[in-house]
From TrEMBL:
Keywords: RNA-binding, tRNA-binding. Residues 140-157, 182-211 have a biased composition (Basic and acidic residues). One of its GO terms (molecular function) is tRNA binding. InterPro entries: Arc1-like_N, Glutathione-S-Trfase_C-like, Glutathione-S-Trfase_C_sf, NA-bd_OB-fold, tRNA-bd_dom, Tyrosine-tRNA_ligase_regulator. Residues 1-132 form the GST C-terminal domain. Residues 140-226 are annotated as: Disordered. This is Nucleic acid-binding protein. CDD domains: GST_C_AaRS_like, tRNA_bind_EMAP-II_like.
């Protein structure tokens, strides 16, 4: 089916919205044949009507979990069609109802805010903007599980092994003695000689299990000198941003970092440095394993990595978002160059008492090439920050610190 035929099956108001939006942007119909085929398939689904029924929102929500857009990784006519078809349903939902479908809410709010869609929607009396209460959205518990549970299971296994060791060895000893001609006395002597060390060994294993298996406490994952690979950096994409209702200098962002649970709520103090228009639909680098923090009543689950230049008198002279390379996708791993860091896994959550990020942060800098990097303060070695697709860079600032 062609693009025109698929659009013709949409209801009149949605069809007009798609046509109006696509008039000034040819990319909405697809940048390649593959994209065009995907767009047509999605428009067909929307035109059939089942996808956007109230009873099917749970299914649609699961489909949209990993997606910023539907058919491709950029805005297309399929997104305009889905937004238009969803509008009469979403506009009638109350907070608890749209909170229960977070991926749809995030997607819908993102699409309705994009400039060409908003312009076409405003020209129609049908598609008024829908305001969502995202500040009071129920927060997802992202607290890392204590690492001691696994250790406890290992200790239990050791103890169980110890408890079965003695009877097994004793049974083997009895069988061997029954086959000899030494009589009952010899059997008794052998049994005593063999049983005692086995029982003692079992006790020793139990003692070792209580100590952690080696006689020493097992080292915690964050013990030792802090290294940058302990920090979990990932590519993020801002799907929504608004000013904090109770703080003039704070933004509340919904940032997609490729998680099945949907975007994370992030609070950043960038209002006085980056206009809100420049925050929308922006790719960035997010620090994802800091302990969640309350920021004027809103819990923040990550931190936006920025480069900050300071003038000679110590005053801030500019702040920018560090940018991932082209073709980066939400959730892409960001790592530090160097054999000692590239294959290391970050901690699930940084312990604030260890001050790992605070120890590493002074070494963050933008190079002459504007590439973001960490300079080892001890050796002076430079480790650029990158994804598999290339380097992370500052838009303009050189020699700036990152935080």
């Amino acid at each position: 089916m062609s693009f025109e035929n698929s659009v013709s099956k949409l209801n009149t108001v949605v069809k007009d919205l798609v046509a109006s939006t696509a008039t000034n942007d040819s990319s909405l119909t697809g940048k390649s044949e593959k994209d065009q085929a995907e767009i047509v398939q999605w428009i067909e689904k929307v035109g059939q009507g089942d996808l956007v029924k109230l009873d099917n929102l749970k299914y649609l929500n699961s489909v949209l979990v990993p997606r910023t857009y539907t058919a491709t990784n950029y805005l297309t006519a399929a997104d305009v069609a889905l937004y238009g078809a969803l509008h009469p349903i979403i506009s009638k939902l109350q907070a608890p109802e749209y909170h229960s479908h977070p991926s749809i809410t995030r997607y819908f709010d993102h699409i309705q805010s994009i400039s060409p869609v908003r312009k076409a929607a405003d020209a129609s009396s049908t598609f008024a903007i829908v305001n969502f209460d995202l500040v009071d959205t129920p927060k997802i518990d992202r607290t890392a599980e204590p690492p001691k549970k696994k250790e406890k299971k290992e200790k239990t296994a050791l103890v169980e092994s110890a408890s079965t060791l003695a009877p097994a060895a004793t049974a083997a000893s009895s069988t061997a003695d029954a086959l000899t001609d030494g009589g009952k006395e010899k059997k008794k002597e052998k049994k005593e000689k063999k049983e005692k060390p086995v029982v003692d060994a079992a006790k020793e294993i139990k003692k070792e299990a209580k100590k952690g298996g080696t006689g020493k406490a097992a080292p915690a994952a964050d013990e030792g000198e802090p290294v940058p690979s302990m920090i979990d950096l990932r590519v993020g994409y801002i799907v929504d941003v608004q000013k904090h209702p109770d703080a003039d200098g704070l933004y509340i962002e919904q940032i997609d970092i490729g998680e099945e649970t949907g975007p994370r709520t992030v609070v950043s103090g960038l209002v006085h440095y980056i206009p809100i228009e420049q925050m929308r639909n922006k790719y960035l680098i997010a620090v994802c394993n800091l302990k969640p923090a309350n920021m004027r009543g809103v819990k923040s689950f990550a931190m936006v990595l920025c480069d900050q230049a300071t003038s000679k008198d110590g005053k801030e002279s500019g702040i920018e978002l560090i940018q991932p390379p082209e073709n980066a996708k939400p959730g892409d791993r960001v790592y530090f160059e160097g054999a000692e860091f590239e294959n290391s896994s970050p901690l699930s959550q940084l312990n604030p008492k260890k001050k790992i990020f605070e120890t590493i942060q002074p070494g963050f800098v933008t190079l002459e090439t504007r590439e973001a990097a960490w300079v080892n303060p001890t050796t002076g070695s430079t480790h650029r920050i990158r994804t598999k697709d290339g380097m992370c860079v500052a838009p303009t600032l050189v020699g700036a610190s990152l935080s």
